Amino acid sequence: MIGQTALIDVVVVGAGFAGLAAANQIKAAGVDCLVLEARDRVGGRVEAGSNGLGETVDLGGQFICDDMPEIMALARQHGKTLVRAYTVGAGLVQPIPQNADDLYGRVTAMRDRLNAIEPDDPSIAGLSVAAWTAAQADEKDAKAGFLSMIEGLWCQPPADVPLWYLIGNDRRITNEVPELQYLLKETIHSLAVDLARPLGDAVRLSEPAERIVQDASGITVKTPRGTISARKLIVAVPPVMAGRIAFDPPLPKSLADALGAWRSGRVIKAFVRYKEPFWRERGLSGMVFFLDPAGLYACDASHDDGHAALVVFIGGRIASEWAAGGKSGTAARIVARLSAALGPQAADALDITLRDWSDDRWSGGAYSDIVIDCAASNAEAVLRSGLADISFACSELSPSYPGYIEGALVAGREAAAEVVAQLAGSLPAG
């Protein structure tokens, strides 16, 4: 039976970190708030699940660092156990280039050179990351390393990534310590659960926003369970997902075009458990950076209590190629690549748990959506402006750490502060 709720001050669409951060701040201001989440869980692109050994592990976003103040404060506030990622020892590059020892430095130099360019420099208009890289005088292996890093991080072919977008995005990721500095023993997803707890029944799971109607009476959100009336709306989902919501009347062309400028990449995350962190015995850190295939990366995700593990990120074109072989085929390819890099012991995995995010109905497919339309340089600004009663808040739009959990928290809280300020003085006393 379709029903309608009483008028809600603010409805938040999405219970990822952006939506939960926004809702908590709105509630703290004494403003009525309701969160609608399409999934049967909170957390968005952060997710925990059971591996084949019955252990709860992070299958989505996982790593944080000291230079991310919002997420670090939350972890400490909720008493989480910080596990320092193991980085002692040598990292490996596969296949081994002629000048492997200084490859990372040369790749970093390319990234620094790129970031010295102004995003609005007319000389780079229409230029992709791949085209810019091809024009550089760097050695072949440095170019390959740079392109592999970009494809692994943004989960898109570098030929589809506008150069101005990468520069503007990269400049907002300001950590000086490694971004893979810590993981949480209790899982990073447990923090999302902690954020949702004080909201109680104000978080409605398995209730996607299908249509948003604006008229003289305000905003009506239509879901499979009924309709909800609101004064203000925060759409706290990635741009691609926001673009799939029906708006009535249709969004202004500038907003519709801004939402249409984004694309989700493709990423598979693999959590590989071992009896022992055997790579450490050889003086290795467990980090493996692959030049071929581009977009493949592995690192140590062990705990100090004998919980030995590597995580492997498969991003971009190879995620599509490997997924075509099914889970068993993907696992076999992972084992083959790890064995070639770390030795035959890599084949003795106790368990390999895969999470292919590209088949996730509610997230789009990767850590972050990116703008792929070279001409859409104003897409972020247009979405941040939103409409009078509708705001957009997601990690992609954050002024700091876009594409990260940190960015989601910042974006959600900024949207909440703006909405609360707009509502101040317009709500009835008491």
Notes on the protein architecture:
Among the domains are: 3-44 and 189-263 and 371-423, 3-Layer(bba) Sandwich (FAD/NAD(P)-binding domain); 103-170, no CATH class. It contains 13 helices and 21 strands. The chain has helices spanning 17-28, 69-77, 103-115, 129-134, 140-154, 163-170, 189-196, 239-242, 253-260, 317-323, 326-342, 379-385, 405-423, and strands at 3-4, 8-13, 33-36, 48-50, 56-58, 82-84, 90-94, 182-184, 203-204, 211-215, 218-223, 226-235, 246-248, 262-264, 267-274, 284-290, 296-300, 308-315, 351-356, 369-371, 390-392. The chain is globular, with a radius of gyration of 22 Å. The model has no long low-confidence stretch (mean pLDDT 94).
Helix content: 25-40%
- Annotation, overall tally of beta strands: 21
Strand content: 15-25%
What structural class is derived from the secondary structure elements?
A: alpha/beta
Major β-sheet annotation? 9 strands, mixed
Radius of gyration: 22 Å
Shape: globular
The average pLDDT is 94
